[in-house]
Design a protein that fits this description.
This protein has 322 residues and is mostly beta strands. It contains 1 helix and 22 strands. It has 2 domains: 25-156, Immunoglobulin-like (Sandwich); 173-321, Sandwich (Immunoglobulin-like).
Length: 322
Amino acid sequence: MNDNNTTCYIYPDSPATPGVVTPDVTFDLGIDMNIPVKMDDGKKITMWGFTNDGSMNGGTFPSAPMRINAGTIVHTRLTVDGNMWNHTVHHHGIEPADHADGVGHITWDVDGTYTYQWRPMHAGTYFYHCHTNTVLHAEMGMYGALIVDPPEGPGTLVSPTASSSAITYDVESFWVVDEIDSRWHTLEWDAGTCGEDVGLHLLEPDYFVITGVDGSGTSAMNVASISATVKIGEKLLARYVCAGYHPQHIKFGGLTGTVYLSDGRELPNPIQVTELKAVSAERYDVIFEPTEVGEFIVTCDILDWITGNVLGTIKTNIIVTA
């Protein structure tokens, strides 16, 4: 790895958090840059991520979700020791003040401890990620789901109003879809930041994952972490995040879902869909109300930016029981 004194990054000291108040919720994050993830062919790829206890080991891919209610005052306390180099936390889609936005290099990268203070006001599906050398660090897996519930808490997607009932759900599933180019996973944390060509313009994925599981083969099917089971008469909420760089085309296996939120904002008119197309960082909240028993295979094609050709396909499933 490059030494902090020779890298082209400039490191202003992290300031004290301005206007700090007592939070309702605090997340203590650390950094783990050695997370082995086993792929469908048996190969292990090293991923990076956040820990949820401030330590420098024990992270997961994706990182553990953050979950809070709208209106909550939140502190995200990031600790980075010298061996893990420099990182930030960006709460994507929340739109906080600059000092809480975590855009590294433009504001500051964290080496030590810094507290981001923020307050989400809109319920929906978001995500958080490192914003240092972002192209590489996001590819390395430094992200996690960020769920903002309405004041009613989990089980309600949209609060009731004077003219409409609440939008509720019974079962929840996370579809965080990403592609991996294993060649990138041998690079140093600051690769390319001095203007050298390290190949970050060329993403040629050889693995395709959904919520941390290789979904390109058959072993992903029925894995509890990505498979959804719902009974007839129940509502399934799928929180879909396009976490990759290539466009995605997700199809719901014959089921029809209703999209209520997009990118953390309620649609004025919910739409019914059997498929969705998304690009990097887009999120959709989709509710399914199945009426027949069966197994429905959800597929997501990862598409080439230019040609539109399918680079790989990810599979998961929805199991509907009586």
